Amino acid sequence: MSTYTVARDDFKNAARSYIVLGVVGVFAALCGVVFLSEMNIYDDPYRTLFDVSAFVAFVFPLFLAPLAYLSITGDRTDGVIKYTMGLPNTRLEYFVGKLGSRLSVGVAAVVLGMVVSFVVAAATFVNAPSIARFATFTGLALVYTFSFVGLFVAVSASTGKRSRAMLGVFGLYFLLVPFWFGFFPVISITNLIETVASLLGVTVSENARQYIITFSPATAYLRSTDLVYHGVAGNYDVFAQTFRGEELYDQPWFNVLEMLAWGVVGLVVGYVKFDRSELG
Amino acid sequence: MPAIRTDGLTRRFGDLVAVDDLHLEVETGEVFGFLGPNGAGKSTTINMLLGFLEPTEGTATVLGHDAAAESVEVRRRLGLLPEGFGLHENLTGREHLVSAIQTKGADDDPDALIDRVGLDPDDARRAAGGYSKGMAQRLGLAIALVGEPDLIILDEPSSGLDPKGIKLLREIVAEEVERGATVFFSSHVLDQVEKVCDRVGIMNGGELVAVDTLDELREQVGAESVIEATVAATPDASALRDIDGVRDVSVAGASVTVTCTNPGAKMPVLRRLDDDATVEDVTIEDASLEALFEQYTGSGEEAEPQAVAPVAGGETA
User: What's the CATH architecture for B220-297?
Assistant: First the structure.
């Protein structure tokens, strides 16, 4: 009951602020824009879903960061936690309530984004969108949302300072997304692996390299979307280039587990830190 | 069973000893004033009573439960008006109150509570982000009253309240005690506490330096009352001096100044003056409570008068 009350109040408070509505609205609008801009390029909406998946993997965490980083830190700095924890809530109820509320905002963004995408695709693409493919895509994006909201709420639970919470969430984002993906020429995980290997005078097998690369929830998410293109993977070259092997790190179920593990492990660590923290 | 009992309660922050070996007992049904300048350790003590902070040493028992280990049990039967609390800026005051009622599993009527603390019903339905300090404080008081708590902890409750609000606060405290609740009233302003509290404890530098009724404390430090009267004819100064509890009498023309060490001496002095001559004017400056406070807390530099005007603007607490 208390968890529900904490979550409801936090959600209501967030839903009435234009920032949150803006984040959800802008994300949904951008999803629609991707479909609109590709309606004359591809016949199949699932090909555009592939481009949306890159947008989700690289950009969506940047939508989630401002939604989540003050979830608990903000309450501690402005004293709202004294109101909530002055009532008979346990720290676990409070923590789960906060997570539930912020997660539901992320879920709302994904679901609305997919509904907008589906409607735009149905109206503008040559071939009709498949409900099953969109549903699968939505499910995977929601798991990805859980992994990042979990991590960001955990960061927020771990510190009573806004600056640290912000540094924590954006640091995590840059580590797990651009760094892991190798967005920058030199600063990337693959470069780091090679540097460390050459320093140690060892060679890293391709298998080991792939496991390391798929360690990030963003990589895991992209690999898991293989499920969306079941039966049509041969239709576009990009699918063949992206989804290749039979190895464990290529298996969507393994990728989904990875994403869940990121969220769960992050949350456990965050909760333990919060439970030990002092609120005075 | 005392409502609050601490045994050797100690809290250190690094080298700083915020609360030092506190032994305190607050009886069920009393109004206990917890006094001290800012930084004396009052809020740290309260935070330990609530389970927000862990004691470094010692224990605190609140309503029969260990404050650290059974914090939720404590908070179930406790009403809290914390110092420096914040509100969800986009929720209305009434929504905060409804959530508190739900969380406590109580059946209070939110509108009756809003009315009781003098919060305007229209304000109660506005977003709390626009509340003044005084409005937030009234809402906080309403939240503290939810579920007829056995113990009410008020941390600097009068801050931000106007004189009307302070009077209402005193009335509410009296009503709650009448109902059987214990009230723990923390403040750095002595005269807020004086009018409502049965006993006071004075904290300074993390230590409890005095616990007693205010009259007893006054007597212990020899606090004085000064009567100044303007009389039509010069009174008999020696007769006034003979009154028990009078320390000093000085007469300057039509003006008489009598210093009493005992509050009970004031009426006999007035009667004697009235018998001797027509009293044209009289003022009594009661035992300087600030001086009493200063005596216990060393300097009293923090015992400044507090702002009574509500702070306008978007302050949520």
Answer: 2-Layer Sandwich (3.30)
